[in-house]
Amino acid sequence: MEDRPPQFNRSLALHPLYERLLRDVERLRTEVSLLLLEHDELLYHECKEIESAYMLHLGGLEYRVYELDCAVRRARLKAELIQARINRQEPVDLAAIARELESRLAEHQAELDRRLAQMNAALERSQQARLGVEDSRELRRLYRAAVRALHPDLNPDLPPERLRLFLNAVAAYERGDLQAMRAIEVLVGAPDLPAESPEGLERLTREKERLTAILGTIRSRIADIKAAYPYSMKAILQQPEEVEARQARLREQIRLLGEAQAAYDERIRGLLGSKPWAMN
C-alpha cells in the first residue's frame, strides 16, 4: 500500500484558537453591553433626574437672573438709542427704537426662550410617575437584552427593520415604558455567531478588534457626560449648604439687577420727559 502524507484536520487545528476568540468576543460583547447600558442610563435617566432637581433648587433663580440681565441690557441700549437721537436733535421714534432693540437683542431673547423651555421640561419630568424598584430592574434587564441583540455597535450588519426595533427600544427605555420593553423582548433573538472555519476565525478576529475599539469610545462618551452639565451639578446638589449659598448669591444678583433696571427705566423717563417730540 502506498504511503500517504497525513491529512491536516483544519477543524482540529482551529479549535483552540476559535474557542479562545469566541470567549474573548463574548466577554467584550458583555462589557460593551454593560457600558452602553451605563451610558444610556446616564443620558436618559440619571442626567434628567439631576437636571430636574437642579431646576427645582437653582434653575428658577438662574432663569430670573438671566431674564433680568436681558431686561437691563435692553433698558441700557434703549437709553443709549434715545440719547443718541436727542444728541442729533432728531425725533425720538419709539417704534423704530423698539424694532432696533428686537433685532439687536434677538440672540438674547432666543437664549431666554431656550432656558424657559428647558425649565418647563425639567418641571414636567419631576411630576411624572416613576417606576418602582423591581420594575426599574426589569426595565434595565430588558433594555440590556435589547442592546446586546440590536445595538448597531454590537451588530454592525443590522437590517433596517431590526434597527427600527432598536430605536423603539431606546425610546421605550427613555420614557420608562416597561410594557413596550416586554413586547420588544419577544421580538429580540440571540445574535448569530460565525461558524468554526477559517472564515469564521477571521471574522472573530476582526470582531474582537472592533469591540475593543468601541469600548474605548463608549468610555470616552461616559467621561464626557460626567464632565458636563447636568451631571456636573450632582456633587453640588448633594451638599445642601452649597445649594443654599448659591441660592443666596443668585438672590443678591436678582436684587442688584432689579435696581439696575429701575435706574435705567428712570433715566429713560427722564430723557423722554425732557423732549416733547418723542414719538410713540
Strands, helices and their partners?
Blueprint (H helix, E strand, L loop, with lengths): L9 H78 L6 H11 L1 H21 L6 H18 L9 H16 L2 H10 L10 H30 L6 H4 L2 H34 L7
Helix pairs in contact: 1-2, 1-3, 1-4, 1-7, 1-9, 4-5, 4-6, 5-6
Q: Could you explain the architecture of this structure?
A:
The chain has 280 residues and is mainly α. The chain has helices at 10-87, 94-104, 106-126, 133-150, 160-175, 178-187, 198-227, 234-237, 240-273. Helix 1 crosses helix 4, helix 4 (133-150) packs parallel to helix 6 (178-187) and helix 5 runs antiparallel to helix 6 (178-187). The N and C termini lie far apart (117 Å).
**Total strands:** 0
Taking all residues together, what is the mean pLDDT? 86
Count of alpha and pi helical runs:
9
How are helices and strands ordered from N to C? HHHHHHHHH
Measured distance between first and last alpha carbons: 117 Å
Report the sheet-strand fraction: under 5%
So what's the overall shape? elongated
Unreliable stretches (pLDDT < 50, length at least 5) are 1-13
Class of secondary structure makeup: mainly alpha
Helix percent band:
over 70%
> Which quaternary structure do these chains form?
single chain
Rg from alpha-carbon coordinates: 31 Å
Q: Biggest sheet, in brief?
A: none
